[in-house]
Amino acid sequence: xxxxxxxxxxxxxxxxxxxxxxxxxxxxxxxxxxxxxxxxxxxxxxxxxxxxxxxxxxxxxxxxxxxxxxxxxxxxxxxxxxxxxxxxxxxxxxx
Length: 95
Hints:
- With 95 residues, the protein is mainly alpha-helical.
- It is built from 3 helices and 2 strands; from the N terminus they run αααββ.
- The chain has a domain of 39 residues: Histone, subunit A (Orthogonal Bundle).
- It has a two-stranded antiparallel ribbon with strand order 1-2.
């Protein structure tokens, strides 16, 4: 499907872009090629083929959310540079 110069200028006006004459010709050829690819795809017989959003079946790959015991607080705070009253001690970030 060959686009005309006026078609390209109309598309450029809709996209609010300015094109010089060399760009108009380059985009005319490129857009015509893209539309030719779509015509080839439209010619494929898809009768009886279910539409899909993804070519492969999707599965949740995350593990089950199961309650497990956590580390004791003293053991966790032992790795902290500063701890106070059973909590991490950090510098104030707001003044």
